[in-house]
Amino acid sequence: MDDRQFRNAMGKFATGVTVVAAEVDGRVHGMTANAFMSVSLNPKLVVVSIAEKAQMLEKIKQSWAFSVNILAANQQDLSMIFAGQVKNNQEVAFDHLDGVPVVPNALAQISCKVSATHEEGDHTLFIGKVTDIQVNDSEPLIYYSGKYRSLAED
Length: 154
Fold this sequence. Notes:
By secondary structure, the protein is an alpha+beta fold. The chain is built from three helices and twelve strands. This is Flavin reductase family protein.
């Protein structure tokens, strides 16, 4: 199989959209990611998968903390900014949760301290011990087959 076929197959898995954020030297850095999952309830652990070529990799290694922000349906613009799809350097304001930058009004804001890392293929998996959570009610931003989607009502 070639890389495109693999990417197309992985795109058939509908996911939510997150912004992973970290702060280094007083400056917040973020990236859009859908490679996120919960790992454990006790202790509360999550994992994010960051490409070795991503700038965010070093930012998380430097800060040793990160947030996962599950985006709401009306936050597609933030997803596009942090995915590098919007090139005008828009200033994005962040809140903080347990000292970690979080996206305001996200469906869920999850602050984490890195508890372990695992290098696998061309990515590093960051296991994050959840230190705090804020949850809001709204519709999620969905990504499927290379496009943003929304949940259909029954």
